[in-house]
Amino acid sequence: MMNNNNSSLIIGTVGGTISSMYASIQWAELLYTVIMAIVGALCSYSTSYFLQKRKNDFE
User: Fold this and answer.
1) What share of the chain is helix, strand, coil (3-state, %, to 5)?
2) Which long-range contacts (CB under 8 A, 24 or more apart) does 17-22 make?
3) What is the pLDDT of residue 3?
4) How far is Cα 56 from Cα 50, in angstroms, rounded to an integer?
5) What is the spatial distance between Cα 59 and Cα 56, in angstroms, rounded to a whole number?
6) End-to-end distance of the chain based on CA atoms, in angstroms?
7) Rounded CA gap, 23 and 27, in Å?
8) What pLDDT is attached to residue 31?
9) Would the CA dihedral through 22, 23, 25, 27 be positive or negative?
10) What is the pTM of this model?
11) CA–CA separation, 42 vs 14, rounded Å?
């Protein structure tokens, strides 16, 4: 079982790590990445869908 002093050190370390990570995130780049992932997924899905329909037309 952790004592109070050790628990405070762990919580402080984790809190500081999360705070520094939050400050270093570039939100514009994150948003751009999310949008590009959505566009890529939609392009991939639509290409697969239309190729499958075209394959069924030839059978």
Assistant:
1) 90, 0, 10
2) none
3) 59
4) 10
5) 5
6) 68
7) 10
8) 93
9) positive
10) 0.58
11) 37
Determine phi and psi for 2, rounding to 5 degrees: -80, 145
How far is 49 from 43, CA to CA, in rounded Å? 10
Residue 46's pLDDT is what? 96
Please report, for residues 20, 41, 43, the alpha-carbon distance to residue 30 in angstroms, rounded to integers and kept in the order given.
16, 17, 20
* pLDDT tens readout for residues 3-59: 566 788 888 899 999 888 888 888 899 899 999 999 999 999 999 999 998 887 776
Alpha carbons 41 and 12: distance in angstroms, whole number: 39
